[in-house]
Specification:
Strand content: under 5%
CATH topology: ABC transporter involved in vitamin B12 uptake, BtuC
Number of domains: 1
Number of helices: 14
Distance between the termini: 66 Å
Low-confidence stretches: none
Radius of gyration: 19 Å
Number of strands: 0
CATH architecture: Orthogonal Bundle
Helix content: over 70%
Mean pLDDT: 90
CATH class: Mainly Alpha
Shape: globular
Amino acid sequence: MDVWVSIILSVCAASTPLLLAATGELVVERSGVLNLGVEGMMIMGAVCAFAGAQLTGDPFVGALFGIVAGAAFSLLFAFLTLILVANQVATGLALTILGLGLSGMIGEGFVGQPGIKMERIDIPFLSDLPIIGQLVFGQDPIFYASIALVIAVWFFLFRSRKGLQLRAVGDSHSSAHALGIGVLKTRALAIVFGGACAGLAGAHLSLVYVPQWVEGMTAGRGWIALALVVFASWRPGRLIIGAYLFGAVNIAQFHMQAQGFGIPAQFLTSLPYITTIVVLVLIARNRRLTMINTPAALGQPFVPDR
């Protein structure tokens, strides 16, 4: 039983950064903006969080550094795409390339240094309960933040006036502008929120999942987060299912290698990405499912009337 608890805890740790990054990107895309720079924002959040924790000795301050780094990086994307009306796809790709290179430069002096891990929360008596104690009351703080964030985003999008305005901007920015909704402001705030979530996801990688800095440690998780938004058909609740499914696949490869399955290690390493491709292909076959919740103005630039 202890082995299964350990496996489930590993799945939770592997799924949390995916859930955080995907939740932020879902809000961005609901506003009609396609930001492919999630990977770049995640890696910047990871290196800045690790650096912040090392410099201050406090992993919570490090996590704050990661959030600020992701949000600041997203501001660059917002300026280029909203103000200069640059192509969103090209700008997002450039943001990812910039983030990967810049993070390597910033983190060069931190390679090989032992990290300061954000410890799991220990609630007296509750954390000591068999099985459920560790799974429910013994997780790290960012795990609880990720679950609370999904609930908050669902409530914001579907139970609040501002959420309705954001979805209106994503479905028809011209109509929203005619009704007096600030399209550029709404999209800018959504982009910054998405960047902050991606930065926190990166912080989880370098402070909880693998408490150290390794260049390129996001390893494509930003792209998986983008696929998760499509997998969830832009619905926050479904993100939890998708994130934990992909997290389980990611952890399964390590256990399969440890058990000595006669499968090439290279294939097992690529398993999460193969799963991503297969899921996207299956979703694409059902056009109605794909289009039913897709923001109608996704990826379309908006230039207000002069």
